Amino acid sequence: MASESEQSGATARAAPEYVADVxxxxxxxxxxxxxxxxxxxxxxxxxxxxxxxxxGSTIRSVGSIxxxxxxxxxxxxxKDNPEDHFEDCGKFNEAVKNxxxxxxxxxxxxxxxxxxxxxxxDTLRWLQSMGVRFFGPTLETPHRKPRMHNVLPNSxxxxxxxxxxxxxxxxxxxxxxxxxxxxxxxxxxxxxxxVREDGTLERYRARGGVVLSCGDFSSGEELKQRYAxxxxxxxxxxxxxxxxxxxxxxxMELGARVLNSHMAAARIRFIAPQRRKLVHxxxxxxxxxxxxxxxxxxxxxxLLRPFIMSFLTTVLEAQPSLYQHGAILVNKRGERFCxxxxxxxxxxxxxxxxxxxxxxxxxxxxxxxxxxHFVSTAPGVAYAYVPDYQRSRRDVFQKAPTIEAxxxxxxxxxxxxxxxxxxxxxxLAAEIGKGGAASDTLSIEVGPFYAMGPVSCxxxxxxxxxxxxxxxxxxxxxxxxxxGLFGAGTxxxxxxxxxxxxxxxxxxxxxxxxxxxxxxxxxxxxNATAER
Length: 532
Description:
The chain is α/β, with parallel strands linked by helices. The protein is 38% helix and 22% strand. The protein has a six-stranded mixed sheet with strand order 7-3-2-11-23-22, covered by helices on one side. Strands 12, 14, 15, 16, 19 and 20 form a six-stranded mixed sheet that branches. Strands 1-10-9-8 form a four-stranded mixed sheet, with helices on one face. The longest helix has 29 residues, at 503-531.
């Protein structure tokens, strides 16, 4: 009888093989960009994706791209440049280093950041050439100029237009294929072995390069246990369940290493309404997005506000400044369980049902009813205030004349909530007396009283990408490139910190294009060598 290893070898030998110039693993934004770029350069490309549909985390994102020197900036007379963008990215990253990730070693790959800011403008134009339409630019501090471009009508537009272009130029798309391991020719990666849903194996060989673009590991238990903060393991994921870290593990078998492995985007967000609203289902048709762009540009704000607010208050989170000025988080029992300014998301995961409520009084409600104090924002489009939540999200908004009545509305014990707020007010008074708290931090004592929630904690994504060089080659032992293997998107972040809205997506498309271009070049040289 044949041994298990012999049987495995026989199965692998029997697996059908398909050959192309470039093989792309992952069909999200970065993978589609890589496949389109390589095909446009005349190379034959196969893209394998383990899900039945394309789009990945890209179509689940907020949808913004931050860039300079864009047609939108030029049209509005905004003078900007990539070098200022480079410096402002550092301000976002420093804020993160000094807050949630204090105490961790955070690399920041400046060479890759410079590649991003100097190429993302061209990437935005490239997306526009396919049919993607943007509104903006809008300002997000600490950017010194408006740079945020928001996709219309929603992020699903990226998947729609990129898949349409990929099929039009001839990318061979194979969905329902989960990559298992890389195929080697000596030390060189020359393909990938995949398993289909029915368990059959297939092999995809690349004459040039393999582009790995399969997302992060926010839904991968093995890598979260190994690298991420312990609380993240039990945190709900609101992004992409398919991001299990398959690509990381495959590359690590070849000596690749993960940088900034602890970095994770954990957020406290309002629970989404059970019924999706029309705005989230709008198709990305040209006539519709053109109408939306013109409406956002020229229609009066008072007329647009109800429509915009119905979107803003559905998907967003409360600003940290709300807690700085006196709001507190309480769990379902009415107990305060954390310092709201010190990583509250990692404490919320330990609470009953991972649910909490934001509690404040009338003074703070009045303060957060007009600019510059807003509850939430969708990247620069508009701000949502307390009255907007009262009007648009009644499912997460409670108001009562007394603390006891408020407790009953959220299902908490009235006595517990009264004691929680009394204890918090006393501690705040003591802090202010000692100069340990800001004078504009308000106690909770003037009715009526408010509770917004439930809110919960979500693992939005991990930023632990594989080490790469400036040619997007994945690095192995001794920092040497693994021949034939390129990284793009989140799996290929290479230590770059992409804080602030619009940088992750900008990197996904930009790195995908450049990695696809470099893999295509390898195919060109390989074909030329074979002809000789």
